[in-house]
């Protein structure tokens, strides 16, 4: 019951909140959803102690779900260290965001519905991380997708919001398709979707080969790549990342919870969860490393040039997810999970801080219209500093431990992709520090660029919005230091138990503790230089950025326009699809099916109805004539021999 | 002719109606034209129907023939008589106060009572002579009530047309009956059936059968013998139209059922083709003709033509399943008809009845209960599950398909799609159109009660479909073709 409650309390909260919000009982909705999530957090803490620290992985049966032939899917909750870590992250951040939302959404007429969606999301995410088989994981996966869609489009009367919601959904479909194919091929290969079966048998399928379109490839490689495609969609990796920045159209608490701390990390979680399979797929691992590294650097370059405060942080999320993936790609799954955890704290902190700034400036999101408010919002200002320090990886903040661990592991992998990831990761670290301080300086320092009226309203957010930042800030400061030993240090093996599998010989993580000193120091130097560059560019010589942008206009334009990914996709996929749809609609549906089908039939009926009405002349002799003709026709039917 | 106690008992409902008719003759003779008397007359006839209905339960079980084999009762006839008496009760009950139009005369109820008596006799007819007598007993009063609104040209026209064409159809029927008598040597159904078992079917029998069925087709307004229906439905006073729509067709369909299945069972191959032809034409004419109509009574006339087409499709299959489906179809037909007229007769503006379809617009805001009821009835007529009308059509098509008449079933499905159009149009008008000039509020109590009763049957039919089907199946076992 105890373990069931962790997962189902948020669902209960969501249902109560949903029903209450129908009759505008916002306070009930808020109380129910917060109570559900906070209780779930409390239980998760116990579970964490028992499972992760106590080393007792277990599974809890809920019900039999699908049984069709060989296909058996039980609804079982799996609790191991991987799950326990995610439980803490999900329920922890979710609780903070729930409370924060009470303040942030206080003026919204539909805040009850908002809370219900948040709780629903939390339930789906918990379903995802506690899944004991791939189908159940897929259920949670799609559940968070739906919740994300609902929340991005929460202000559905805004054109941009519902387009963004649709975009998120459609782009994720591409990834989900890969994921679904991955599940199907695993079932085809192993005859089970149960994790325990898959993990136990993975090694025996090493030599299996699947032929797809005449192309032979090792079965486990194919499966791993398909699963990774799914992960790419949800975690916004290069190529399928375009939805994430647009998702910032949702209310800020949503961005903090879903599009920074939890849902987007589902892909990383999936890769770590499937480590017993992926470990046998060296090609897939290399692909994961390269895609992750490219995403890290790509998103950082774009983040440098954006002016929307939330988009900057969104690209930074994208970039950090890239780090997590290339860590997983070099088999340093614990490092990936470590960064996932610390990142959840400081990224949620940054987003909620940004929300606070936006709130203070009367819903202004453009960095060009901010500035000069740091004295008026001291708490927010402090929180943003802490978040940025953690993000940039300054010593003794959370990001320092996890990010350095990843870079060291990449270096220690001693493989081509590993070294590539190391150098790209270092470059991204420099850019990360640069854009973080660019954001801080533009948002808080310099001369106020907002209108006088807005400036007069600038105020610190209420306690209900600032207090939830405190636990997140504590996490951003201490989680790295606290978690280092258990996540990636000496207690690693005991901590993870069987939850993560690393093939002997894939020893990047073990070697990471013995890399040259310069590898350890380089990221810190780069981060510091990033900060210095930002200070020079935006405080000492404020005219510099514009001059550089002019000097390197083509590159700047490339970065500013997000490497033209959206335009490219529009040209390659969207426009032809729309054109094809137009043809089917105008020519196929309207021109053929409607013309001859419903329209043709109704026209015919109308004409014959008119004729019948004309026959109904009202003259008795016409009627009598019809009757006689009727008899004559029926008789002649027999006499002519047809009727016999 | 001997009269025994059994004789009286078997024809008890008829005798009861005769008794009440005689009482009404006396009352009508002495009635002054005051509201009080009209109420008394109506009450007496309602009591008559109710008593007749109760008497059905006293009838001897099993098949019995009396009056030298001219009059037959069995499970089927008892069931159909029940439907007719129930329909007659509804039709008379709906005639509330203030109709005027000649309906306020005592003769109206007397005539209707006589017509219903005729229908009961039709159902029990087991001889060509008793068939014709009963048919005329039913028809003559109906000619008169159709023309009851003496002040109105339309009503007189309707009565006259109905009478003239009815006489023509009677002529056909009589001609057919004489042919059959001539070639079989008898007028009794069982004797005719016996004569058919030996030797080939003579051409004279076929001709007689065509004429006989044509005459009967007029009574159920099957196309192409339907043309009187829209004019008479529109021209007759609304309570009379309600009567036409609810009751006589039950009796006429039963008559066709007993003529084809009892007397001419051996000629199934021949009459099947006629019934198929009548059914197809009726379904098409009914469905397409209704679309352009502006008058709701006219529209319901076409709707009833289509309904008869479906019932004939069930008959045409010539199987026990077919007769079962017809019994179910007529059951739902009575209730759908009663319910829809309960709503139409509530529609008044400034105290005057209105009957244009467009007058229904906005009914949902002025008469929410009636609009909801009408919606259910229209959905049921269109054959939307899980309402009664769906099951009725379902069994008919099932019987047709099982009898190998797949094209007939397909035509039936297509025409019911077309039919759905004008049923749904009414729902659209009631719910999505603003009222142009609002109708009077309220409505009479008995209209609401009739509406509720039919709604109950239509909505709850789903739960009783099993027992109803079993009963219908067992009583159609009484037909000669299956015994």
What can you see in these coordinates?
With 644 residues, chain A is mainly alpha-helical. Chain A has helices at residues 2-22, 26-53, 81-104, 111-129, 134-152, 159-190, 195-201, 219-234, 243-246, 252-261, 266-273, 275-278, 282-305, 309-329, 333-360, 378-392, 398-412, 416-444, 452-457, 463-466, 469-487, 492-496, 508-512, 517-540, 544-551, 553-560, 565-596, 598-615, 620-639; strands spanning 58-68, 71-79, 209-212, 215-218. In chain A, the strands form two sheets. In chain A, strands 1-2 form a two-stranded antiparallel sheet. In chain A, strands 3-4 form a two-stranded antiparallel ribbon. In chain A, helix 15 runs antiparallel to helix 16. The longest helix of chain A has 32 residues, at 159-190. Chain A is globular and about 110 Å long. Chain A starts with a helix and ends in a 5-residue tail after the last helix. The mean pLDDT of chain A is 89. With 483 residues, chain B is mostly helical. Chain B has one domain (5-482). Chain B is built from 20 helices and four strands. In chain B, helix 4 runs antiparallel to helix 11. Chain B starts with a helix and ends in an 8-residue tail after the last helix. The A-B interface holds A 602, 605-606, 608-610, 612-613, 615-616, 618, 620, 622-624, 626-627, 629-631, 634-635, 637-639, 643 and B 160-161, 164-165, 168-169, 172, 203, 206-207, 210-211, 214, 218, 224-225, 227-228, 230-231, 270, 273-274, 277, 284-285, 287-292, 418, 421.
